[in-house]
């Protein structure tokens, strides 16, 4: 009888610790998965902040601090963003894009803790630098994204597409269905924005951008080439008019959407994206639109590893 009782206690203890241990292991691996999803979901906040502010200022002359201050979480006000001189049709579209980005920020922050708005450099000088790099020489006068509709659309060509490729890249790395659903929802609207911007530019592909005597198509080709060069991962970016071999089915030079040989969207890693938005091709060295670097675990760990290299 006593033996049975002891055996029972032993069995109980064994079962208790077994299940305790199993649940510990399971919850730990869930935590790892969750943190991977979290990292991948918070990273795009950087680009969503950038787009939200660029589009808000461009269409309204003010930004998140006026529209939805709590989404900025006390992050510094962007530097150099301005109201753009847009025709009424484009202004209407850009305002819609701007408000869509506000929704995106909220959707991501409802899912992950995120971080406050990082310091953004949206000055015309920051955009002028991108264009100078794209052409491999200083444009004269310096490119001003806020000067008129066509310049603003060309500047807009610079950003949402990078977010799009990031969402395509993030998707297969996500574990949870809710994360995948969020990213698919963000991707859908980002690629819609990119398509609208590209369509408006495609319509004016042969237009000479004053005073540079360079066509709209040439601008887009140069910007896409620059992003590929900075990303350092091969062809993932295509302008509006390409060699036939890069058009859909290798059969056409018009290139309204940028996509691979099977017309699937290209994908980029967070590191590739940082190389592009920092402007210098190095994910460890902030600059460009993010003078103090992007935020979140992924971007921060790139900055830390550069700190470590500098200290060493
Ligand atoms: C913004 O970018 C321009 C061009 O690179 C630079 O001159 C300016 O100092 C930058 N501003 C900040 C606050 O980083």
TrEMBL record:
Alphabetical list of InterPro entries matching this protein: Pigment-catalase-like
Which protein are we looking at?
A: Desiccation-related protein PCC13-62-like
Signal peptide range equals 1-27
Instruction: Give the record's keywords alphabetically.
Output: Signal
Name one matching Pfam family.
Answer: Ferritin_2
Originating species: Senna tora
Tell me the PANTHER family matching this sequence: DESICCATION-LIKE PROTEIN
């Amino acid at each position: 009888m006593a033996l049975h009782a002891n055996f029972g206690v032993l069995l109980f203890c064994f079962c208790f610790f077994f299940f305790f241990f199993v649940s510990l292991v399971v919850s730990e691996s869930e935590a790892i998965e969750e943190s991977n999803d979290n990292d991948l979901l918070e990273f795009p906040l950087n680009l969503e902040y950038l787009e939200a502010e660029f589009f808000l200022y461009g269409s309204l002359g003010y930004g998140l601090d006026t529209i939805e201050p709590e989404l900025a979480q006390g992050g510094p006000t962007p530097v150099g963003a301005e109201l753009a001189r847009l025709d009424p049709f484009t202004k209407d579209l850009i305002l819609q894009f701007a408000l869509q980005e506000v929704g995106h920020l909220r959707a991501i922050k409802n899912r992950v803790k995120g971080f406050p708005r990082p310091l953004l450099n949206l000055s015309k000088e920051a955009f002028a630098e991108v264009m100078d790099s794209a052409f491999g020489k200083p444009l004269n006068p310096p490119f001003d994204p806020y000067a008129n509709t066509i310049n603003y659309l060309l500047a807009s060509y610079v950003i949402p597409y990078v977010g799009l490729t990031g969402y395509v890249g993030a998707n297969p790395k996500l574990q949870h269905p809710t994360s995948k659903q969020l990213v698919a929802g963000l991707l859908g609207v980002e690629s819609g924005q990119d398509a609208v911007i590209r369509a408006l530019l495609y319509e004016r592909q042969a237009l000479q951008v004053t005073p540079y005597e360079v066509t709209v198509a040439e601008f887009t080709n140069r910007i896409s080439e620059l992003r590929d060069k900075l990303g350092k991962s091969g062809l993932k970016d295509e302008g509006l008019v390409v060699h036939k071999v890069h058009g859909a089915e290798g059969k056409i030079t018009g290139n309204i959407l940028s996509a691979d040989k099977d017309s699937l969207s290209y994908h980029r890693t967070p590191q590739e994206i940082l190389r592009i938005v920092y402007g210098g091709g190095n994910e460890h060295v902030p600059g460009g639109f993010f003078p103090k670097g992007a935020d979140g675990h992924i971007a921060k760990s790139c900055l830390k590893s550069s700190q470590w290299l500098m200290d060493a």
